[in-house]
Amino acid sequence: MSETKLTGDTFELYCDVVxxxxxxxxxxxxxxxxxxxxxxxxxxxxKRRVSINTAYGVNRVSVLGITRLTLEDSGTYECRASxxxxxxxxxxxxxxxxxxxxxxxxxxxxxxxMSCST
Length: 118
What we know:
One of its GO terms (biological process) is cell-cell adhesion. This is Ig-like domain-containing protein. Residues 1-106 form the Ig-like domain. This protein has 118 residues and is mainly beta. It has one domain (3-86, 95-108): Immunoglobulin-like. Helix content is 9%, strand content 47%. It contains 2 helices and 8 strands; from the N terminus they run E-E-E-E-H-E-E-E-E-H. It has helices spanning 45-48, 111-117; strands spanning 3-6, 11-18, 24-31, 39-41, 50-56, 59-66, 75-82, 99-108. Strands 1-8-7-3-4 form a 5-stranded mixed sheet, with no helix packed on it. The radius of gyration is 16 Å and the shape is globular.
């Protein structure tokens, strides 16, 4: 779900997928108005503010968390899931082997941080 947060806040996004074999999950990010420039996120990115926790079982659940939000964290976050054995083959078109779900996070300047900086 898309959300609006304040600077300094935390958010979590959940991705729950089912498939046989169990799908791989990846998290990606694109800046606002830059949907053509997705970059993959990893655990510990953005000065250790990004955490990615994945649980395995009959289905796979992955949670993306980002702490101490900044204005630069605004954008589109995408969960990609695939169990296609050729999903990472660079000769294949990845659009045909990944299922995608997106949420937009808008980060606004908090009043508290504005009053502290003046």
